[in-house]
Amino acid sequence: MHTRSRSHSPGASQPPDIWLPSTYEELDALLRTSPIYEGYLRAVVQSADGVLFKYKGPSYAEEVRAMRYAGRLIPSLVPKILHHPPLHRGVAHARRDGRPTGVWYICMEKCPGVSLDKVIDNMTPYELNHVAEQLRTVLDKMQRPRSKKLGSVTGGPFRNNLFPDELLPYRPSTYSDLINLWREILLVCCSETHTENLLSRLPRNAPIRFAHGDLLPQNIIVNGSTITGIIDWVTAGFWPEYWDYCVMHDPDWSSPGWDRILEILFVGKRRQAEINAVHEISEIFNRLWYG
């Protein structure tokens, strides 16, 4: 996951002098010896070549597309893709011979540095201000594209793990479409009164912007106080304007250093009602999807 990028490979052809896996078991072996990250839905390992492989999960096709799109907006900060299996529709799975199909991994270069969450609360005020100013530039560049519909960077509907397969929108969404979908999901486990109370805290007509979707310290790579990479683009796409703002203010990620960066980055009154609503909606969805 930690990678650096100046340009983006189309992906399907094998780059020279880089080992590539043919089975999940080969990457699982690296996970035992050279792990970078292991979570419920994904894992990242480092090969002997010093490059990273992100794997596990249903498919990385949408993340590849999002990284290519983001790479045109902030090219020096998006992981450089060295290789991935050919893009096509459908999820990654194993054939009868055990060989996976689909975009079952992404091979990337490694960004220099560490994730911001590991160092943020030991940073000086000057360093925190430096990080905040860089993030301001990142957000400004990412929010320049405009879209009339919510969904994938391809112009199609969302295709990410924020929605389970059976609830993935079948077309690009208007903002009212998205709110109606959220209402339908929330009513599975919440009263109508509570559901409407949650949704009423969100803007009635939110502009649509390109968003990372999980822009938190764990996904920001720094070398000193210089940002060298923004990683984990799996939920990126066109979202309501408030999405990245609210995710970045997630109370679970509150810390003295991150709170100070957010104060510098977002001038004006804190939009607490929106923050609380998005946090609670996300928590409910996580409980429904993952237990």
Automatic annotation (TrEMBL):
Transmembrane segments: none annotated. SUPFAM superfamilies: Protein kinase-like (PK-like). It holds the Pfam family APH. Residues 59-268 form the Aminoglycoside phosphotransferase domain. InterPro entries: AGP_Transferase (IPR051678), Aminoglycoside_PTrfase (IPR002575), Kinase-like_dom_sf (IPR011009). This is Aminoglycoside phosphotransferase domain-containing protein.
